[in-house]
Design a protein that fits this description.
alpha+beta; Pantoate--beta-alanine Ligase, Chain: A,domain 2; four-stranded antiparallel β-sheet; 4 strands
Length: 91
C-alpha cells in the first residue's frame, strides 16, 4: 500500500470506531441514513468522510456501518471500511 492509502485507511478505521459508538437499538431508529463531512487525516490531508448506516439484508436485522474516506478529487482512490452490528436477542 502507498503512504496516502495507509493514511486514508487509518482515518476510515478511526471514524468507523466513532460511527459504531451507538448500539443497534440507537442505530435502528436512524437506519438507513448517511452523511458526508470534511476532516483531516493523521498526516494532515484534507479529506471527505462519508458515513452510512444500512440494513444488511432486511429492515430490523443487522445494520451495516460503512465509512469511506477520500480526497475530494479522488473518490475512487479512497479507503472504505465496514462493520455489521447485530441486534441483541433477549435471553
Amino acid at each position: 500500500m502507498s503512504p496516502i492509502h495507509d493514511d486514508l485507511e487509518a482515518t476510515a478505521t478511526d471514524e468507523l470506531g466513532r460511527a459504531c459508538t451507538l448500539g443497534w437499538k440507537e442505530l435502528s431508529g436512524l437506519t438507513p441514513w448517511g452523511d458526508t463531512f470534511e476532516g483531516f487525516t493523521p498526516m494532515g490531508r484534507e479529506v471527505c468522510i462519508e458515513r452510512s448506516y444500512l440494513w444488511e439484508d432486511a429492515a430490523g436485522g443487522d445494520i451495516r456501518v460503512e465509512v469511506t474516506v477520500y480526497q475530494r478529487q479522488a473518490y475512487e482512490d479512497g479507503a472504505r471500511v465496514a462493520r455489521t452490528i447485530a441486534p441483541k436477542t433477549a435471553s
